[in-house]
Amino acid sequence: MADEFDVVVVGAGAAGLSAGRRLMELGLTVQVFEAADRRGGRAFTETATFGMPFDRGCHWLHSASVNPYRRIADDLGHPYEVRTTRRSMGLFLSGKPAPEAVRAEAMQAIEDGFAAADAAGERGEDVSALSVLDPSDKWFPLVDHWMRLLSALDPHQISTLDLSRYHDTHENYPVVDGYGALVAAHGADVPVRLSCPVTEIDSSGSLIRVTTSGGTVTARAVIVTASTSVLASGAIRFLPGLPADVEEAIAACPLGTAEKVAFQFDGPIEGIEPTTYVETFDPANPSRKPINFTINPFGRPMAVGQLGGSHARDLEAAGEAAMVDFATGGLVDIFGSGIRKRIVKTTTTHWISDPLVKGAYSCALPGMGDKRLRLLEPIGERMFLAGEHASKHAFSTAHGAHLSGIAAAEAAAGVVASRTAVI
């Protein structure tokens, strides 16, 4: 392995791969180091469990008309479905299908909840999303559920200012063969050392020294794409230490919890169109949280349930059996107890307990919405952060990570050019 590069990139998720690809386009020497044994980070499509693609991480091309991965998917021949919403097409209350008018009322309540939080942020109010909601409203459990899904934290932990900055075109296109597969394919030519974690970055000298499990290399600039929760854990030692305002920004934008429970059936569920979104909760039992499913995704004999926030965190901590049991209860609400006999196999995700990620995606805490902006700025003159957390308008998304990686690569290239000119 060469021991000196123009730029070293830490992490081979969407941000790291896009940064590496852009640096190569600019003619720079680059090496990406990845602690895991695969590319993609939180973009992870696997087929081993069910014998068909399952996205353990990101799955939808959010804001598809402005999402660069849509063009990339077209270029690489990765199909996707054109959808305008992720909201449920079917709603089950206490195990019974709700009339269409009731379903529409519930979905509108969700939209109104987000609109209230966005309006507060647009007024410059950096308060908790919960503070602008009405917990006594009959649809609050669904509003709460969707805020947990999209921010990975509970409403009392979500900054309205940060949330209002997210640009949403309400186009959410599911990727047929997996978003993770798309991200990995786009970065297939980027040089990545797998199973090679970075443990120390020393920027005190004329060249930056990057220590990995496989040895030490040097670079003129470094791009760090590790998640905020990994950075906060101290898994990577920085010499000198990170500036106080950067540490504050990292702490202000922790990763929350979003997990999936997936089921394989003995065949597609009859009478259900491919890629149908269904939601269930019990108004008579508020302690039992809602859950939503994608049923028959792309016609496959599967259901994928989603959990978010503290509810997901607690279930994940209780173990896979607890996650499956809760989600199975939701399926029984929808299809009856006979659905249990049709379950062939299950799997669950565990992003919050993955030591290489430590969560789902970032969310700024109330009163700290502006802290995220520091993550978009250089650290000194030669080090840059990238990832979904380093995006002002597309945080929590793969395309936000992708765009931040490109921006960091171009900034790093400028540093290399200026230092080379001086030399």
Task: Map the helices and strands.
Layout: E1 4-10, H1 14-25, E2 30-33, E3 45-46, E4 54-55, E5 60-62, H2 68-76, E6 90-93, E7 96-97, H3 100-122, H4 140-151, H5 160-164, E8 172-174, H6 179-186, E9 192-193, E10 198-202, E11 208-212, E12 215-224, H7 228-233, E13 237-239, H8 244-252, E14 258-265, E15 276-281, E16 291-295, E17 302-308, H9 309-318, H10 320-335, H11 339-342, E18 343-348, E19 383-385, H12 398-422
Parallel strand pairs: 1-2, 1-12, 2-9, 6-15, 10-13, 12-19
Antiparallel strand pairs: 3-4, 5-8, 6-7, 10-11, 11-12, 14-17, 14-18, 15-16, 16-17
The amount of helix comes to 25-40%
Radius of gyration: 22 Å
What's the helix count? 12
CATH top level of the largest domain is Alpha Beta
The rough form would be described as globular
Mean pLDDT: 96
Low-confidence stretches: none
By CATH, the topology of the largest domain is Polyamine Oxidase, Chain A, domain 2
How many angstroms does the end-to-end distance come to?
25 Å
- Give the biggest beta sheet: 8 strands, mixed
The proportion of residues in beta strands is 15-25%
Instruction: Please indicate the count of domains.
Output: 2
Protein name: Tryptophan 2-monooxygenase
GO molecular function, one term: tryptophan 2-monooxygenase activity
Domain Amine oxidase: 15-411
Pathway: Plant hormone metabolism; auxin biosynthesis
Structure in words:
The protein folds into two domains: 4-39 and 187-254 and 368-422, 3-Layer(bba) Sandwich (FAD/NAD(P)-binding domain); 85-170 and 256-353, Polyamine Oxidase, Chain A, domain 2. Helices cover 33% and strands 21% of the residues. It contains twelve helices and 19 strands. The protein has helices spanning 14-25, 68-76, 100-122, 140-151, 160-164, 179-186, 228-233, 244-252, 309-318, 320-335, 339-342, 398-422; strands at 4-10, 30-33, 45-46, 54-55, 60-62, 90-93, 96-97, 172-174, 192-193, 198-202, 208-212, 215-224, 237-239, 258-265, 276-281, 291-295, 302-308, 343-348, 383-385. The protein starts with a strand and ends with a helix.
